Amino acid sequence: MRQDTRLSRLLHVLLHMAETDQPLTSQDIAAMLGSNAVVVRRIMAGLRDDGYVAAERGHGGGWRLVRRAEEITLADIYRSLGAPELFAFGLSNPAPDCLVERSVNATMDETIAAATAALMAKFTEIRLSDIQSDVAARRTRVAAGQEPR
């Protein structure tokens, strides 16, 4: 099963953006992600449209955060990505008159809905600044030799 890593990769980029006053070009971000600039611009456009980043054209231009890390939640970033499916499970329906199939589908549907609601609730609690704090704590532990580089 193929995993969708866009959310974690985008959080990575946003954390780097939060650490600098310099804009990051689409090429910079693409190199960071092992991707290409066209894909980066497409993904960043959702964040721009939702008011989290802005793009500056020309020499010295690039992408910048326009909201503080404390103001951005994981749910915000997830929605900017177009709210992709969180779970790869699907319902089977080759025999819609089968009571067993209907029961299985109802159970799966309810369970996936509950799991999605729980995950989205957690996403709304976590801010970009929370991850920033974790990064800072890890840097301190690495500098002290308490965590591998």
Automatic annotation (TrEMBL):
<dbReference type="GO" id="GO:0003700">
    <property type="term" value="F:DNA-binding transcription factor activity"/>
</dbReference>
<dbReference type="InterPro" id="IPR036390">
    <property type="entry name" value="WH_DNA-bd_sf"/>
</dbReference>
<dbReference type="InterPro" id="IPR036388">
    <property type="entry name" value="WH-like_DNA-bd_sf"/>
</dbReference>
<dbReference type="GO" id="GO:0005829">
    <property type="term" value="C:cytosol"/>
</dbReference>
<dbReference type="InterPro" id="IPR000944">
    <property type="entry name" value="Tscrpt_reg_Rrf2"/>
</dbReference>
<dbReference type="Pfam" id="PF02082">
    <property type="entry name" value="Rrf2"/>
</dbReference>
<protein>
    <submittedName>
        <fullName>Rrf2 family transcriptional regulator</fullName>
    </submittedName>
</protein>
